Automatic annotation (TrEMBL):
Name of the protein in question: NUDIX hydrolase
Gene3D superfamilies tied to this protein: Nucleoside Triphosphate Pyrophosphohydrolase
Organism taxonomic ancestry: Bacteria, Bacillati, Actinomycetota, Actinomycetes, Kitasatosporales
Keyword Transmembrane helix: no
Nudix hydrolase domain location: 1-113
PANTHER family: ADP-RIBOSE PYROPHOSPHATASE (PTHR43736), DIHYDRONEOPTERIN TRIPHOSPHATE DIPHOSPHATASE (PTHR43736:SF1)
GO molecular function, one term: hydrolase activity
């Protein structure tokens, strides 16, 4: 999750399914999580980032995939699309809530609240209540 000084959040529209999501991806076998964040954001958006902190852990209970979300700040670069993205945009928190599915929007909103790291489960579309 990349947040600018004005509070806008970096998002991409995925090339494969047209949904708005956070930039991100799968870590290389020998890659530290923070290095993977830096690489994936740059590959998908053209933006260089500095990693601040882990803000959440999110498990897709259907697919068995665990996503780590780190809050980052931009440190250079220019927005550009890639083979994985058809649009790159800096969205307000309200725009995030409007454009993204619940399971992606909550990751950005969790990162902004300063009470993390959050640990949440979901079914790929909706959060599953803890307990």
């Amino acid at each position: 999750m990349v947040v600018r000084e004005d509070g806008r959040l970096l998002a991409i529209r995925r090339a494969d399914n047209g949904t708005w999501e956070l930039p991100g991806g799968i870590l290389e076998l020998d890659e530290a999580p923070e290095a993977g964040v830096i690489r994936e954001v740059l590959e998908e958006t053209g933006i260089h980032v500095e990693v601040d902190e882990l803000t959440g852990v999110y498990k897709n209970m259907v697919r068995g995939v665990v996503a780590l979300v780190f809050r980052c700040k931009p440190s250079g670069g220019t927005e550009r699309t890639s083979s994985e993205s058809t649009a790159v945009s800096w969205l307000t928190p309200d725009e995030v809530s409007e454009r993204m599915a619940e399971v992606y929007a909550v990751r950005l909103l969790d990162a902004l609240d300063g009470n993390g790291p959050h640990v949440r489960s979901h079914d790929g579309k909706h959060l599953i209540p803890a307990g």
